[in-house]
Amino acid sequence: DFIARLETRLAPRFAWADGIATVLSDAYRGGMVLMFVLAWLAVIVGVASFPLEGVIADWIFAAVELVIIGGILLITHIGDRKRRWHARWLETRRVAEYLRHAHVLSLAGIARPVGRWPRAVGGMWPEWYARQTWREIGLPSATITAGYLRWLLSGPAREHVRGQSLYHHQKFLRLRGVDRALERISSAIFVIALVLSIGTVAAQLAFGGHAAFDPNSLQFFGVILPMLAATIAGLRFFGDFDRFAEISAVTHAKLADIERRLDDVAALPNAALDYEFAAGILAAIEDAVVSELESWQAVFGGKQMAMPS
Structure pTM? Predict the structure, then answer.
């Protein structure tokens, strides 16, 4: 009956919160990336009139730039004020992370004390919702024996910790790779822009008086390439990939330590498997997850959706 309650009450609510948080995260991050790209395109359109002077009317460039800037303002209005992608994403993600490990703790009749729940600026409905879900699940009707604790720690708890530890290790590698790739791309573009600038100066000195020499094309790339590098650097700064990689690395280390403790449970005698021992390990699992959530939200909580500047 208790397992049925986990399947019919806990699992759907976790999936609901996790799914909505993923959709809102994609919308928020995608909107910010799109605004960075549109800001770069606005610069391109603004300076494109130099090499194309006399070929295309200036008012066309001004109209295209106006549309791009209007698109940036529209995305900001929809995402920040109308749809609240950022705030709703953080709230639903909190619900999902609170409920992610609730099945393991509930099997031991453990719940986080009210005074130890994280505090967040703004609404506290995610914490209230998670607590009420925990209360609705209730306690398992079981006798807590050494055999029960051995099954819980060696089975559900161990599998849960192993999955979370692997996830954070892979997340660390992925984020660190993205951060390094963006850094290399941005640096390479700056080098190319430097070479073009040197070439422009050299060409001006050598052929500046020649009628066939037109420096506008080189100047065009000399403007848009540094802006592209700055846009990529801005995305890297906005994403904070390196800092989130470090947070996941710390969480992975904590969970790996807990996993090693759970691996040793099989060799422990029944006399050593008491409720206090099991509760300490399960509480450590929750502390690792909640600490990661607090660190993550402390960073991303201040990254409101706003126009790139």
Answer: 0.88
